[in-house]
Design a protein that fits this description.
2 copies of one chain form a homodimer. Chain A has 360 residues and is an alpha/beta fold. The first copy, chain A, has 2 domains: 174 residues, ATPase, nucleotide binding domain (Nucleotidyltransferase, domain 5, 2-Layer Sandwich); 140 residues, Nucleotidyltransferase, domain 5. Chain A has 13 helices and 12 strands. In chain A, the strands form 3 sheets. Chain A has a 5-stranded mixed sheet. In chain A, strands 10-9-8-11-12 form a 5-stranded mixed sheet, with helices on both faces. Chain A has a two-stranded antiparallel sheet with strand order 1-2. In chain A, a hairpin with a 5-residue loop joins strand 9 and strand 10. In chain A, helix 4 packs across helix 13 and helix 5 runs antiparallel to helix 10. Chains A and B meet through strand 10, helix 5, helix 7 and helix 10 of A and strand 10, helix 5, helix 7 and helix 10 of B.
């Protein structure tokens, strides 16, 4: 396999492969698309159709083309825009890879906002309108793609995502699935980046009006937002309802906690407990840890809240809490992005269907 | 004083007075405007310029005209629309009262979203552009008008508002003022209608995904929203970001608590504690209860969360909690609406300025 290395969007290393995927695949040009559709952005990668065995994947993974677009969560931007964004990002990734639409064998979308079979069906119908009939199309919650990014496309274990929002999603070996949290700010995703930052803002207001203890968060948050008084926070929160804008304050909270602030430490410790409870709900439902809780299973950690902090390491503290209950749980920090996870899922789903139908 | 009784907007009793306000007031036709500008609606009343002494006010109060418009919170609808709404509602109330703009002597606006002197100055400037120079104009947070509605325009004591949002606002006898909460949902007004209902929705999702105990709230809330599964709540909350739509679920929570549901009872008990803490922060800052906490002061209760429930009476439980700390505190449930409170404030502010200038 010879490669020519390019660097494309977002500084991500992109490899252009001459495809020799082996005897499983007769057509050298066949590709799959994997899409990670989050609340902030949508990423699509185009990869060759791989037969992944024994979790083996070339490092770096064979990404033929990669494209980025805006939000594709139909709950946030409406159906028409969500659909247009998805189509556009897939066509751009294909075009960058040099492959034609006719080369696509399978597409897997991991999209936030897929919370109900109705959501899944609607997006499947969009995909069936975009691609020829023979193309295999799969739609999952974006958490499933994130799990696959840590498990090389194998759906077993539990993923915990804590970025702007938070969700835990898991699969048992026999294909049962379960989720917890992932409802957004109104529905109390308190371990998320939004949850942590909203708690911090609340604590600043409480310290200011006498309901709560003084905290370093006041000066640090006001400074980072260029405001002069906590009274101005009300106007600031109203000015833009975006959760990502609130969640962007997480590093300030972590920094105050590292400097020993009691309020900031309490917020982060509560977030750790909340995230651990979220994973436990999924593990319990699926019986992932076995009858005596000692069974081995991966916990895939994804999202800035879990991965960006070196000193006050939220992800590590969640793992430490979980391992007390589940000594066989082991953390996985994915080396590839969720869009690649979605592409690997596309390969695996495709191969499984072909095997089932006796084609391979 | 002869009256002709009409019934106007909202079924409110409206009286048309031949004004004989006594020797304090030379011009029989002089009027004041009082405005209550909330997040849901804006109400303006036109009243004769009264000299209120010894908390004496005709019952029912002499309302000459009353008008209702939409939201005038500049944080929610932007400055232009907020200003237009305020001007429109004042002109409509004037027109209904049969008085001319030139008859207006004083205007008091109690507007939500006034959280900073800058907000106050901006709205004062709008009023100065709308009315002739001699008209006295006053701008306050809407909580101040609500306090005045319970105290006949005297600014002493603490008001607690819990409707869609929540806030406590108080004045000491010597004119110091303080507030607590009132920051909206991001900033943690957890005792508010929004806070109670958002907690209830969160508990339904937690019960569904295994993070929390089962609760009657699940069936009752799904039934009231005509949904078939808790998974559908995510789409429902995203579909419309209005807090009032969430807060409208409070009666369902109260009903489940009355039926003995543990989760609903815990939510309401926590709301009671949260609201009591909010009042305590204001009482403490102003020293309203005196050195030994036994001083007498009114706690004015306003808003559907505090006043609409007969069995599980949130307002009464807040008062019971507060009286344990402040035996001299006494609850006041206003008989007039906050817009009338604003009009009474306009009268009082005007008379005080005239007295100060030696005119009266």
């Amino acid at each position: 396999m010879s490669t020519t290395k390019n660097t494309q969007n977002g500084g991500v290393s992109v490899d252009r492969y001459d495809l020799h995927i082996g005897s499983d695949c007769n057509d050298e040009k066949t590709v799959v698309l994997g899409v990670d559709g989050g609340t902030t952005s949508t990423i699509c990668v185009c990869m060759p159709l791989l037969h992944i065995s024994n979790n083996h994947l070339p490092d770096p993974p064979p990404i033929l083309g990669r494209a980025i677009a805006g939000c594709s969560n139909h709950n946030s931007v409406g159906e028409t825009l969500a659909r247009d964004t998805l189509e556009q990002v897939m066509m751009e990734a294909l075009s960058k890879s040099g492959a034609k639409k006719s080369a696509v064998e399978a597409v897997c979308l991991g999209v936030s906002g897929v919370n109900h079979p109705n959501d899944q069906d609607r997006i499947l119908n969009w995909l069936r309108e975009i691609f020829p009939k023979h193309v295999k199309v799969y739609v999952q919650n974006d958490a499933v793609a994130a799990l696959a990014s840590g498990s090389m496309g194998k759906l077993h274990g539990c993923v915990l995502i804590a970025g702007t929002g938070s969700i835990a999603y898991g699969f048992s070996e026999d294909g049962k699935e379960a989720r917890a949290a992932g409802g957004g700010p109104v529905l109390g995703d308190w371990g998320s980046g939004y949850g942590i930052a909203a708690q911090a803002l609340t604590c600043v207001v409480r310290a200011h009006d006498g309901r709560g203890p003084q905290t370093m968060l006041t000066n640090c948050i006001l400074k980072s937002l260029n405001l002069s008084s906590p009274d101005e926070l009300i106007g600031w929160t109203y000015a833009d309802p975006s959760w990502a804008r609130i969640a962007a304050l997480v590093p300030v909270v972590v920094s105050c906690a590292e400097d020993g602030d009691g309020v900031a430490n309490q917020i982060l410790n509560e977030a750790v407990q909340e995230l651990a409870v979220t994973v436990k709900a999924v593990v319990h439902k699926l019986g992932l840890s076995g009858a005596d809780n000692s069974g081995e299973f991966p916990i895939v950690l994804v999202g800035g809240v879990l991965t960006d902090n070196k000193n006050w390491d939220i992800g590590q503290k969640v793992v430490n809490t979980l391992i007390k209950t589940y000594p066989g749980a082991f953390p996985v920090r994915p080396k590839v992005e969720p869009a690649v996870g979605a592409a690997l899922l596309a390969c695996n789903f495709y191969m499984k269907e072909k095997e089932k139908n006796g084609v391979l």
